[in-house]
Design goal:
The protein has about 250 residues and is of the alpha/beta class. The chain has ten helices and eight strands. The protein has a single domain, classed as Aldolase class I (TIM Barrel). Strands 1-2-3-4-5-6-7-8 form an eight-stranded parallel beta barrel, surrounded by six helices.
Length: about 250
């Protein structure tokens, strides 16, 4: 089994995601959040288990001196949201070796199960797993059902299938959307087997809705959450972080 201790604390994890610039464009940002230094400071001050960057942000903003304070997960693939008329494909943009040289102690890769390009992405993820495990670092699989073969990407059974795919391909952690209830999330976790599950934060309507999702994540037995906009779009990101950490790392929740 791959050691997850560099990106977890006592069997739980909270990751700060900042790969939205490639995936969504600048519409998610304001004058503060468009600056990766601002996000990096939240990650450091909030003592997240890891921060998630694409390779360009990691190269220009993350230094090796930070490794003992904030672990780095490099997202190896990505796409824009500009192409609308075809099923999604997220190509490999960074190698495992490149990510390690940038200071990464973990890597991530998105697969869109159900896309007509699914086979290419599963093949690439399998290669990433092989190369990362040879270096002793974990792989997080973003498992997001998408495409014309997936009429409802939030269907709990589809999300459970996606989590199972991550297990079958060798991912150490799968990142999935919240499937809507405690019972369905438990089913997703069961489907993932020994592969750990983190739930994406998405963008909730309110802070309380977001924190309630976190409570359900903890009750389900999932590893934790990977959150972005619910933290750094908040007027008080460190206060939201404090509340979230109380939920995720309080073993009595």
């Amino acid at each position: 089994m791959i050691d997850l201790s560099h990106i977890t604390s006592n069997g739980r994890a909270l990751f700060l995601a900042y790969d939205q610039g490639l995936e969504h464009g600048p519409t998610d940002f304001n004058d503060e959040t468009i600056d990766p230094e601002f996000i990096l400071k939240i990650g450091l001050d909030g003592k997240f288990n890891a921060i998630i960057f694409q390779k360009g942000i990691a190269e220009k903003y993350y230094s090796s001196e930070l490794k003992n304070e904030l672990s780095l997960i490099v997202k190896l693939n990505g796409k824009t949201n500009l192409v609308k008329d075809q099923d999604p494909y997220s190509p490999l943009l960074c190698s495992v070796d490149e990510a390690i040289k940038l200071g990464a102690v973990g890597v991530g890769y998105t697969v869109y199960p159900g896309s007509e390009f699914e086979a290419k992405m599963t093949e690439e993820l399998a290669t990433v797993v092989r190369e990362a495990h040879a270096q002793g670092i974990p792989v997080v699989g973003w498992m997001y059902p998408r495409g014309k073969n997936v009429p409802n990407p939030t269907d709990p059974e589809i999300i459970a299938y996606a989590a199972r795919l991550g297990l079958e391909l060798g991912a150490d952690i799968v990142k999935v959307q919240y499937p809507g209830s405690l019972e369905s999330l438990k089913h997703v976790i069961q489907s993932a087997g020994k592969t750990k599950v983190v739930v994406s934060g998405g963008k909730k309507e309110s802070e309380e809705e977001f924190l309630e999702t976190a409570r359900i994540v903890v009750k389900s037995g999932a590893l934790g959450m990977a959150v972005g906009r619910n933290i750094w779009q908040s007027k008080e990101p460190l206060e939201v972080t404090r509340k979230l950490k109380e939920i995720i790392f309080d073993q009595t929740c």
